[in-house]
Design goal:
Largest sheet: 9 strands, mixed
CATH architecture: 3-Layer(aba) Sandwich
Number of strands: 11
Distance between the termini: 25 Å
Helix content: 40-55%
Bound molecules: adenosine-5'-diphosphate, magnesium ion
CATH class: Alpha Beta
Strand order of the largest sheet: 3-2-1-4-5-8-9-10-11
Length: 300
């Protein structure tokens, strides 16, 4: 049977974040996707004006009940991104448990969207809820540096040692795979460091098998893009599906596709728009170029 992903993320009418960044890449990589929209906004929140509405836990529970009644909760994967409220987060925890009852092998890929570059963009109580309720359910966790810090008690991740310790702590709480998607490490202003860690199976004698880790350095483009983390999570899910047991290849292909999209986006919008004030026009020019890059998503 085809893999089928239940993807709970935001929807924007114009542009590419959340499910708009996830559904198309997952589909072109051969996975079925059932999207649920955690918000429906006109555009991403970096624009000067945003209009729309948010979904709450009761609304998610209603959809889940409908799917359940028709025996449509047959997903192999759950993918979650931006979740704006405690009630929705709790409903997702319950949905994950429902899915696992039907499919004990469910893979839950969780992007714990909390903030970036030192700034929290959800209510502070969501940090504790993620740590207590969601992290233990996740199979694959893909925080950025700031999120990894928040989820492991707040100590700064200021080097590889600290990053490895954070991964270790997160493994201990559930996820078999942790990818810190971007770190700014001291002494490397021109680079982004990604760290991926996957727990090895228990040894026959019952002792823990340790973890396999890989690190990758990515050339930093001196600009901020919106939706990169969302695209990364979707690509990683798809490539982990196509390369089971080979996290290094999955990460390489996910980063490869993402970098192709960023390169094309930069080429298209030009250096002026990259440096410019965030007017609506500039935001629109900087939207990720997913459609023109579909071939590169498939063959990174
Ligand atoms: P988030 O959007 O959740 O903060 P990240 O910033 O970690 O996610 O971005 C995810 C991936 O996108 C990174 O691993 C990196 O490959 C790519 N990326 C994001 N911003 C840049 C940038 N300025 N230059 C190069 N690559 C970037
Ligand atoms: Mg980031
Ligand atoms: Mg993110």
């Amino acid at each position: 049977p085809l893999p089928r992903v239940l993807s709970v993320q935001s929807h924007v009418v114009h542009g590419y974040v959340g499910n708009k960044c996830a559904v198309f890449p997952l589909q072109v990589l051969g996975l079925e996707v059932d999207p649920i929209y955690s918000v429906q906004f006109s555009n991403h929140t970096g624009y000067p004006v945003v209009k729309g509405s948010v979904f709450d836990g009761e609304q998610l529970r209603a959809l889940a009940a409908g799917l359940e009644a028709n025996q449509l909760l047959t997903h192999t994967h759950l993918l979650t991104g931006y979740i704006g409220s405690l009630s929705l987060l709790q409903a997702i925890a319950d949905l994950c448990s429902m899915l696992k009852r039907r499919s004990p092998d469910l893979t839950y890929v969780c992007d714990p969207v909390l903030g970036d570059e030192g700034r929290l963009y959800v209510a502070p109580e969501l940090v504790d809820a993620y740590a207590a309720t969601i992290v233990p359910l996740a199979s694959v966790l893909v925080p950025n540096q700031f999120e990894a810090e928040r989820l492991t008690g707040g100590a700064p991740i200021d080097g590889l040692e600290a990053a490895l310790a954070a991964c270790e702590q997160l493994h201990g709480r559930g996820p078999h795979t942790v990818v810190i998607t971007s770190m700014a490490l001291p002494g490397d202003p021109g680079g982004i460091t990604l760290l991926a860690s996957t727990r090895l199976p228990q040894r026959p004698d019952g002792r823990l098998g340790g973890a396999r880790r890989m690190k990758m350095r990515i050339e930093r483009i001196q600009a901020y893009f919106t939706g990169t983390g969302d695209l990364f999570a979707a690509l990683l899910l798809a490539w982990m599906h196509h390369h089971p047991g080979d996290l290094a290849t999955a990460v390489e292909k996910a980063v490869g596709g993402l970098q192709a999209v960023l390169a094309d986006t930069v080429r298209h919008c030009g250096p002026a728009a990259l440096a410019a004030e965030r007017t609506a026009e500039v935001c629109a020019q900087r939207e990720l170029r997913l459609i023109p890059c579909q071939g590169k998503l498939q063959e990174p």
